[in-house]
Amino acid sequence: MASDGLFNPQPLIARVKMLINLQLKDVLRREKLPVSGAKAALQERVIDQIQLYVSRGDHESYGRLRALINEPKGPPTPSPVQPRTPQSGVPLPPIEPTYTLPNGHPRPPTFPTAMPPRPYTTALQPRFKDSPFYTILEPLTPVVECKVRENTRDQENVKIVFRKDLADRILSDPSLKAMVYCAADPITPYTLADIAFPYQVEIKVNEDEVKANLRGLKNKPGSTRPADITKLLRIRADYSNMMRITYALTQKKFYFIVNLVRQHPVEELVARLKAGRVITKEQVTREMVSKAQDTDIQATSSIMSLKCPISTLRIEVPCRSTICTHNQCYDAPSFLQLQEQAPTWTCPVCYKVVGFEALTIDQYVDDILKATPRSVDQVTIEPNGVWRQTSEDDTRSQPKGGRASSDDDDEDLVEISDMPRVASVKNETPGPMMRTPPDSTRSGSTSARPSLTGQKRRAEVIDLSSDEDDDPPRAPKRQSVANSRPQMNGLTNFPSEPPRRPSYPSSTSFQLPRLMQPNSRATMNPMAPGYRTPQ
């Protein structure tokens, strides 16, 4: 751009956005430009004329147009504060630019038949919260205001044009990205806004849909990332890239803007952490001793895990926040990768809200990691700060003890339902007890788990059959049933005769098992040979 210190078009362009239609038409008539079209088309023509004079270096024409814009004829502008008109040849006082036009080279005035509306406003310029992953360099588009649409849908079109020098920078530097930012109403000049997109929104760049997560985490404000559209843009000088924003069912206003940002990878942030402040070993030990000397607290040894609570892998770069009171650390690369995907910035140990500036490397834990082999997952910390490696037997006993207890419980459940030697009693079971699972069904479940046959099961079976000495042995039949898989019939153990009344006392009737096989109802099959209705 051929501008020097006498040209400062940004405040003048901001002034154009405050003019009403009558004032815009008056400026266009004095510049001998067409006055037809919507307000957005009128503003576009005036802005193009400003850029044309700046590119030519025409001080006289630029000063004349600036005077027309600052002192327009017609009704006053709705802005309560009128900018002071500077003397000719003196630049306007610098104010905070609301946006930067990406088209540095002039374009001749165009008069389209239907110019898409561009409802951006300079009074509501969102200022977003800082992120260690992105540094906003300059805006590439004006702010686009999306109106409230409670029952309908709407769309806004935005043009993205690159200057030649800017296009060359983006092509030569892969860390430069074009990203879409959005903030929800209300926004003020004094507060920092979170990135928040409408719940139902679709963004297309050059008719290609932007594949990005625009919602973030549920009930977690600020967990949304800006949408990267760099790969969808045709980064060429003076090429008009079109971005279309389609949204619906919004209860508030939203403000879109495309910014040129510099992306900082996780590796760069980890290097910054290593080069920054650290928590020394002496400081950690001093804090432990101070806590141990507290008379209200009985200090004992504690176990410190060397695994990251996020990745469950061994910590490589131990870090924690300075606002946290615990000594447990987490892996810095894992934590930063998680925040890059969903920036909640909460401590994974105590769930306090932390920031990147508060993260520090813990040298105490770093020395432990360097002094222990990679197979060690935890150490024991004494109240005076001295640590020792936890024995491997203690490390293995905790998970194994849990599994052994669960296996014992599982075996007890099987023992209650698996009684293979009840066949001698089952043949004399009275009719009302025909719902008891047959021996073939229960023996089949026992054969499926032969390793669970223990001493407790044998003692229980002997107790049930000890008072039936006169029963004929059923060893052959038990063998054939045990070797067979449990089927749906379960009728091989039934005698050819109908069941008789029991001859043993009622107190010896065996107990119904708690766990019954699904096929135990086969004993009620009326198609079984010799079946009679129970009396």
Overview of this protein structure:
With 535 residues, the protein is an alpha+beta fold. It folds into four domains: 1-114, no CATH class; 116-264, Jelly Rolls, CATH 2.60.120.780; 268-392, Herpes Virus-1 (2-Layer Sandwich), CATH 3.30.40; 415-466 and 473-524, no CATH class. 29% of the residues lie in helices and 14% in strands. The protein is built from 14 helices and 16 strands. Strands 1, 2, 4, 7 and 9 form a five-stranded antiparallel beta sheet that branches. Helix 1 (9-16) packs antiparallel against helix 3. The longest helix has 26 residues, at 392-417. It is elongated, with a radius of gyration of 40 Å. The N and C termini lie far apart (107 Å).
Kindly state the number of beta strands.
16
Q: Average pLDDT value?
A: 74
Instruction: Provide the CATH architecture of the largest domain.
Output: Sandwich
Order of helices and strands: HHHHEEEHEEEEEEHEHEEEHEHEEHHHHH
Overall domain count: 4
Taken from the alpha-carbon principal axes, the silhouette is elongated
Instruction: Please state roughly what percent of the residues sit in beta strands, choosing from under 5%, 5-15%, 15-25%, 25-35%, 35-45% or over 45%.
Output: 5-15%
Q: What structural category arises from helix and sheet content?
A: alpha+beta
- Regarding quaternary structure, what we see is single chain
